[in-house]
Design goal:
Blueprint (H helix, E strand, L loop, with lengths): L10 H8 L3 H11 L16 H15 L4 H9 L3 H12 L7 E6 L8 E4 L4 E3 L10 E5 L6 H6 L6 E4 H14 L8 H16 L12
Antiparallel strand pairs: 1-4, 1-5, 2-3, 2-4
């Protein structure tokens, strides 16, 4: 299997595999800094399978009523590394708890961490802070879904990260190769096409006058 962290996919592949409309993806990058580079540039770049899974997760959160800006903050905030590692483990078939959940409001009695929209990071319950807008819920390995649900205070939306990986991988497999071709592969394809176009036709035997 290809390294899921390898940056090899174009924007076309990202939107096709994540289900997000191109105009929406570009708006997320321009307005909310999604995948912005260190210098703040959000222009053309390559993306990995993990990046596409993150976009898919953001998209699912927006479908469930979370504003795009907040959804991007939740996914790309302080818990980003944990989410990325979960996706990597799933791609490699390693043991990981794939449940990602959230509930609106500050569920201070929940087993999950409240999400501080001001800092963009999870805040431990009991910490001195203003009430959070969302609470992020994750199940540790060995924790049953029943135990997770009984430890929450409110209506929880649970997302199976394994389903996201399966959907993204299936969509990428269905794409045409040129969509995900590297720069070197693109140059080779163009060069070969040009060579064929300008190639002289082979001489037909016996066509010359004797």
């Amino acid at each position: 299997m290809l390294d899921p962290t390898e940056k090899r996919y174009t924007t076309s592949a990202v939107v096709a595999a994540s289900g997000v409309k191109p105009v929406t993806f570009h708006a997320w990058r321009a307005r909310h800094g999604l995948f912005a580079t260190e210098d703040g540039d959000s222009s053309w770049r390559r993306f990995s399978k993990i990046d596409i899974c993150l976009v898919r997760l953001i998209y699912i959160l927006t479908i469930h009523g979370i504003d795009a800006k907040d959804a991007i903050s939740i996914v790309m905030g302080g818990d980003l590394v944990k989410t990325q590692l979960s996706f990597v483990c799933i791609f490699h078939g390693e043991a990981v708890e794939p449940i990602f959940g959230f509930l609106k409001g500050d569920a201070t009695t929940s087993g999950g961490d409240a999400f501080d929209m001001d800092t963009g990071k999870p805040a431990k319950k009991g910490a001195a802070r203003a009430p959070a807008v969302f609470t992020i819920v994750r199940a540790d390995l060995g924790v049953s879904l029943g135990d997770l649900m009984s430890d929450t205070n409110g209506v929880v939306t649970l997302i199976d990260l394994r389903k996201i990986v399966l959907d993204v991988q299936e969509s990428l497999n269905a794409l045409d190769e040129p969509v995900i071709a590297t720069k070197e592969e693109t140059h080779r394809i163009v060069f070969e096409a040009a060579a064929k176009a300008f190639a002289l036709p082979p001489e037909i035997e016996g066509s010359e006058d004797e």
